[in-house]
Every structure is written in C-alpha cells, then in structure tokens.
Amino acid sequence: MPGMWWAVGVAVAVGLVSAYLVWTAGRVQRLQDRAELAARALDAHLLRRAAAAAVLAERRYGVELYAAARIALDARPDEREAAENDLTRQLRAVQLDPTDPDCEAVIAASRRLALARQVHTDLVRDARAARGRPLVRLLRMGRGRDWPRYFDIDDPTVSAPADVPTG
Question: How far is CA 51 from the centre of its chain?
Fold first, then answer.
C-alpha cells in the first residue's frame, strides 16, 4: 500500500510538470504569434504614413519630402528603419496645417503609427522575455522561429504648430 501512494504522487507530479511545460510552450507560441502580427500591423501603418506623406508632398511641399516618402515606401527590410527615420525628419521640417485634409491625414497616420510602434515594442519585449527564460531555452521551445526584433525608429509623432488652432 505505501508503494502505491508513491506511484500516485509521482504520477501527479509528472502530470503537473507536463501541464506546466505545455502551458509554457503555448505561451511562448502565443507571444511569438502576437509579436509577428504586431510587426505586420506596424508595417501597414508605416506604409500608410509614407503614402499620406507622398500625397502631401505632391500637392504642397515638394521634392525632398516626396523623395523621402518614396524611399520609405520602396525600402528593403534592412533599410527600412533608416528610411522611416529620414521620413520622420522630413515631416518635422515642414509646417503642417491641421485644417488641410492632406496634413491632417499625415498627422493622424503618424499618431496611429506611434501607437502601433508602442504595441509592437511591448509585444516584442514580452516575447523575448518569455523565450529568454532558462527552461524555455533549455527545452528549445522557440526553435524554428526567429527572435522577434524591435523596430527602432524615432518617435513618429508629428503635430501641428502651437500657434495654429486645431479646430
């Protein structure tokens, strides 16, 4: 009889450890998936901002802003951060009038981009923390997938000048 309790105890312990490992693997998978979805959403917001900036440049501000917007739209993944930083600098250099619909579109796209970037950064941080845990690394729960990468750009928020009423 006492040997049977040991067997039951070992079976319960193995069951609890197995449940914890399955839960941890699922958590790592979910965080990785969410970080990838956030990267796609960030990319979509980057494209929207660049497209809005290109339209604005065609209609009002000229060659330099248009060139920066086109470079951001056409950039390869390894050149994307530099192109987006250049576009942000170009947008900060122009006076945006919030009463102009084209300027308003750029300002709104920049705000949404800033939010998407923050969400992406938070999810990448969480996914990297989960994958960096010793047990996860030991059991290689994240194998076959690349580590989530931060998208390091300047704060993309652009705003209207303080002396222009925002309506």
Answer: 19
Opening angle at CA 65, ends 164 and 41, nearest 5: 90
pTM of the model: 0.82
72-113 per-position pLDDT tens digit: 999 998 899 999 999 999 988 888 888 888 889 999 999 999
Cα 68–72–73 angle (5° rounding)?
120
- Rounded to whole angstroms, how far apart are CA atoms 138 and 118? 30
Tokens 């930083």 map to which residue? 85
Residue 89, Cβ neighbours under 10 Å: how many? 11
In sign, the C-alpha dihedral spanning 155, 83, 127, 31 is positive
The Cα 56–Cα 96 span in angstroms is: 10
- Per-residue pLDDT of 1-53, as tens digits, reads 567 888 898 999 999 999 999 999 989 999 999 999 999 999 999 999 999 99
The total number of residues shown for the chain amounts to 167
